[in-house]
Amino acid sequence: MDNIKEWIINWFVENSNADEADIRQHLDENFFEEGYIDSFEFITFIGDIEDEFGVQFANDQFEDISFSTVNGMAEIIEDLMK
Fold first, then answer.
1. Nearest-CA neighbor of 53 among 13, 23, 15, 80?
2. What is the rounded distance in angstroms from the CA atom of residue 6 to the CA atom of residue 38?
3. Which residues of the chain carry a pLDDT beneath 70?
4. What is the pLDDT of residue 61?
5. Which pLDDT belongs to residue 27?
6. What is the pLDDT of residue 66?
7. Rounded Cα gap, residues 27 and 49, in angstroms
8. Domains of the chain (ranges plus CATH)?
9. Local structure of residue 32 (DSSP, 8 states)
10. N or C, which end of the chain is more exposed by having fewer CB within 10 Å?
11. What DSSP letter does each residue of 47-73 carry, written as one string?
């Protein structure tokens, strides 16, 4: 799961105004509320994840509160890859 988490962190560093140290301090915080991305950027984020890890998200997963945190997203991706 660490490699998934690192990929997510790097994605935010490359695609948002957040710096890596800030992201690492807020791994369990809502990345929308932290201002890392907005709803439009989220679409790109999801597409990049699906392309990178070969997973497909189900609609009900978008309702899971952990879907909006780095740690939660990494766990969901890991589960989908099993």
1. 80
2. 20
3. none
4. 84
5. 97
6. 87
7. 17
8. 2-80 (1.10.1200.10)
9. T
10. C
11. HHHHHHHT----GGGGG-GGGGSHHHH
